[in-house]
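Hey,

Quick one before I head out. I ran the complex with iron/sulfur cluster overnight. Inputs first:
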Amino acid sequence: MALQATTLEETYQEMADKLEGIVPDIELRYKAELVYEINKIKKERGAIILGHNYMEPALYHSVPDVVGDSLALSRKAAETDCDPIVFCGVRFMAETAKILNPDKTVLLPAKEAGCSLAASITAEDVRNLKQQFPGVPVITYINTYADVKAECDICCTSGNAAKVAESFDSDTIIFLPDEYLAANIADETDKKVIFPTLETIGNPKPGLDYQMIGWHGRCEVHEQFTVQDIENVRAQFPDVFVLAHPECSPEVVAASDYSGSTSRMIDVVRESENSRFLLMTECSMGDNITAENPDKKMVGLCSIRCPHMNQITLEDTLNALQNNERIIEVPEDIRIRAKRSLDRMLEIR
Ligand code: SF4
């Protein structure tokens, strides 16, 4: 969360108090200068900075006014009066803020912070599915671009996916685009999931009892975690408590002690009596939790990183605020339809 410091020296000191042992002093001194400038210009411009849980520790603990997962940040984006909104996250998140705030300037501090899930499906793919399964409600994960959201009935996040799926009085739902999240939600809600292939699109198998129709999108980070990773870590640290994001495979989720959104994972670690944790998610989050809970030990599988989230730096955040870069735009006809899907999700508590 944003620092309260009003001078450069106070900024450095507040950062050192939070991040000692996590960020080396030489880097802290350099980053404190950037943080001081960002917080100063943010105040002058009446801006708000939203920061995803995957941001690197010096940024995460120093400049965002709100931190959280996609759901928490979407809610904040819907409520804020501040302008501009700087989104320290990836492009689909900044688009979400723009969809909810058409009259405000939304800035993404990286040229191209994409997402393998968002890139896995197009609006035309959704239109084809709707043609194949007419009348079946379509749920899309928030990790999609605005034109895909515009084709769907409702959005969901990993934090509310099961609730959203259960909100439909329908035996069959289309759930896009994360194959693993769909399978995990199918397990949780006692549904069965099938995946249309190139052969079955437009030519569904007769008599098949569809309940959940998925898509073959995957998160390039979470798909890499394996059950063997968990077994290796448990062999070395038998006391470890394992938390997996639901974008991991169902096998990894089943081998873990807990599965939930990034915000829920943070809460579970904070409230747990265990002292050692393995997080099956982006590695930066472990450092962010350690900074707030110095008594908890995190085991990180840090060779697996999100190349998109890691594009957001303090340097680019400062540049975004100073030069109004990079402005996110969504065509109005798409925005209106995408907002319907987001509003329906935000109504579900
Ligand atoms: S961690 Fe996965 S889902 Fe999140 S932005 Fe990176 S690629 Fe996309």
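The pocket of iron/sulfur cluster is lined by residues 90, 115-117, 143, 219-221, 247, 282, 306, 308-309 (CB under 6 Å).

Talk tomorrow,
K.
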